[in-house]
Design a protein that fits this description.
It contains 3 helices and 3 strands, in the order αβββαα. The chain has about 90 residues and is α+β, with helices and mostly antiparallel strands. The chain has one domain. Strand 2 and strand 3 form a beta hairpin. Helix 2 packs across helix 3. The model has no long low-confidence stretch (mean pLDDT about 90).
Length: about 90
């Protein structure tokens, strides 16, 4: 799957989960961007100047924090998101 196609599918997944996605000009010290909560709304803010591959990595990492079982997506994209999930620490 092409990087641009993966990015588009990740954007669609975010929209289905009502996670607002925006591309902004971020300063270098802020990195690529990431997940945040603004006024009770989940948002992913990414640097619009970043390479598509970096956007894919950051967006997949943000989406990995959510339950996505109810969202249809390709196996490729689901696998990418799953690789970003952190294992639970045993008690």
């Amino acid at each position: 799957m092409k990087v641009q196609d993966t990015l588009k599918e990740l954007e669609d997944v975010a929209a289905k989960k009502a996670i607002r996605l925006s591309y902004e000009s971020l300063g270098g010290e802020l990195g690529i961007g990431g997940l945040c909560k603004v006024k009770g709304e989940w948002r992913v803010i990414l640097d619009k100047r970043a390479a598509d591959g970096d956007k894919v990595t950051a967006l997949a990492g943000a989406l990995a924090k959510f339950d996505l079982e109810d969202v249809f997506m390709s196996e490729h994209t689901r696998s990418l998101i799953d690789r970003h999930k952190k294992p639970l620490i045993p008690k």
